[in-house]
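Entry: Armadillo repeat-containing protein 6
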Amino acid sequence: MAQAWPKAKPKLTQEAFDEAVSSNIEDFDMSRLEAIKSAIEEFNVQGYDLSGVVTDMAGNDLQSHPIAVACQGVRDACSGQGSLPEAIDALYSSLQASTSESSGAGASLSQEASVIAHKGGAMQALLEASKQSKSQTHQLLKVLKLLQLLLGWLETRDAFTDAQGVELLHDLLTDEASSTEVKTAAATVAEAAARQVEEAKCRLVDSGTVATLLEQLQAPDAPLDFVGAACGVVRSVTTADDERPPASKAFMHARVLAKSHAAIRVLLGVLRRVPAAQEPATACRVLGTVRQVAANEEICREFTDDGGVMACLQVLRECAPQRDVCRACLGALRQLAHSDTVKQLLAEAGAVEQAVRCVDLHSGSDEVAEVALGLLGNMMLRQPDICCKAAEAGVIDMVVEAMQRHSGRASVQRQACLVTRIMVARNPELRPLFLERGVEALLRTAKVAHPVLCRDVGSAALRDLGLDNYND
């Protein structure tokens, strides 16, 4: 049975919040700060979503906030009242005051600044500014950077889609006059717009924007920044991460892009061009996109027949000491190993030994352990000969050590339970090797410590090990 998304919280309006604050001040003689804190606590207890509310001191006077004033300035300039370059600079400066640099995630705008900009019409104003700046590259790049910053908040992403933002990006990407920098910035904005917004994903595919990016990715001289951004868009539209619609078209997008636009072959060509050891970040983006696009047996087989599995293994051998590339390679191979054809090819090419090596190289990384175990589990499923090969390669010790080292990580424990079950289900001769290493106690501990993820698979592993009371 498919897991249901959690029920969405009701959205609190700015008016309701401001009224509660005013009531706290007038009825209970609170200071404004006390009234705000009390209102926040009360609405949180009631289960409201406060993401669209400005809770700071500016809550009652949003129009005079510097961000709102700057948004109005851009709107006025787009209407011919004032200088557009100066208005864009003013908005950039006002947003910078509320921007922080997140480790590994780039610049991000505070929630309240996002709300004020949204209520001030920043998205519509910047889209109009983009149209008026098409012939001025420097100015256009500044507007696209502002759009990317604003798209960190879900409601502005919805507003971007509703205001025909995807169509604007398509025009920029297909315009022969657009520079490489503009196309890279447009792709970066497209990726940001598609995150958790199903409608944006569908429009990016239906408008031909993703097909255009795949075509441009085939250029042998495509800059790495563009490669990373374009792959990010392809990955976004093939990822189901919007909990609001009843269903996602991510799987269908992967099939359409692979069948009609040769997406998996394009990605293989890019993977072969990117120097993974020197450009690990770009390599990770390409590999992550391969994992998403390889959504069914047919696509996996096409990638394999073209040499894609061997290309991924080559990257893994060369870059195993680099944790992020190692994890991305293992993740792509894990997805590909759902195919029975790929399972045997991987086993013959030394993937089992390579997975064990990766876990050993990154013994402190629960993420590497989880994805390596997942790869091995997929490879060995219904493949008793590969299970024997895995036992000879040290996988049993690897499983036990991973369970001991990462006892607090539920996802690692679950994969270890699954691998144990898969290895002994059709190979009873392997049971004593697991039991003498103390796996029974580890499985029972995992069931108790992580009941949601491990109770079912832990019980199944204990049962297939031939143990009594496996449900205890």
